[in-house]
Write a structure and sequence with these properties.
alpha/beta; Rossmann fold; 2 domains; 47% helix
Length: 275
């Protein structure tokens, strides 16, 4: 089985490493040094910058920033055989699925819930998807057989899988991923003076701001692609912050405690008392 990966960053290279020995892997990336390293490491058997390298593939996996996925697949299609299964790894799905459904019948979206704040080939690892969940987002236009083929590929990578509607996926990701990343990024705007007190930084600050080191290009595209779900959440966060501000300003201690207790109860319900 020939699988072509377009994009050999953190996610793409991790897929290639996870699939090593399970398929013939071709890697496509605009960075010649990345392709060279992947070839030297034996992560891919063929590689280069040309999309024509995808010719003859049984499956093409597009692991580029979400703002480039539709355009990249469109440029790759002339080199694909009829029936070649195409999937992506983007953190948004609705727009991508709608757009590709119009031009390629064997496309199905997917999103591995795995990653690290450090991007690039150097951060990739074969076990990145081990026991992680991957969301697969078919549509009514998805060709029969695509779901099982993509599910099997992710299971080869060690991932668990679930099926979800693309729009529901974007609504959910806005709450559990996109807004937390946005808030972590924003918190850095108030951390300028922290540099001179680095020795005082505790686990709370480190854990909250860890994801602010993530790839800005990737997150720029995600925020713009999912703006319809993110913008209302920003307004909701502003309302919650205003409520807390009013309680603090007015010294309403019991109400403040009750509000924080309600927040804590929700968190414990999500993860259990051990976290």
């Amino acid at each position: 089985m020939k699988i072509t990966l377009i994009g050999l960053g953190l996610i793409g290279a991790s897929i290639a490493k996870a699939l090593k020995g399970k398929a013939r892997i071709t890697g496509i990336d605009q960075d010649a040094s990345t392709v060279g390293r992947a070839l030297t490491d034996g992560v891919i058997s063929h590689g280069g910058a040309e999309l024509s390298l995808a010719s003859g593939s049984d499956m093409v996996i597009v692991a580029v920033p979400v703002g480039s996925i539709v355009e990249t697949i469109g440029r790759a299609i002339p080199y694909l055989d009829d029936g070649t299964v195409v999937t992506d790894t983007g953190s948004t799905k609705a727009h991508i699925v709608r757009s590709i459904d119009e031009i390629w019948p064997s496309f199905i979206g997917s999103h591995p819930i795995a990653g690290k704040e450090n991007p690039g080939y150097a951060s990739s690892q074969a076990d990145l998807f081990s026991s992680a969940m991957t969301i697969i987002t078919p549509s009514p236009a998805t060709r029969a057989g695509c779901i099982e083929n993509v599910r099997r590929m992710w299971e080869w990578c060690g991932s668990l899988t679930c099926i979800m509607d693309p729009q529901l996926h974007d609504e959910l990701m806005a709450v559990i991923s996109h807004m937390p990343h946005l808030l972590s990024f924003v918190s850095m705007s108030m951390a300028g003076s922290v540099q001179i007190h680095r020795e005082l930084l505790g686990a709370g600050f480190r854990d909250f701001t860890r994801i602010a080191a993530s790839d800005p290009v990737m997150w720029r595209d995600i925020f713009l692609e999912n703006a319809g779900n993110i913008l209302p959440l920003i307004d909701q966060y502003r309302e919650e912050l205003k409520k807390l501000r009013d309680l603090i300003e007015q010294g309403r201690g019991q109400e403040l405690e009750d509000t924080l207790t309600a927040y804590a109860r929700i968190r414990r319900g999500l993860y259990g008392d051990s976290r």
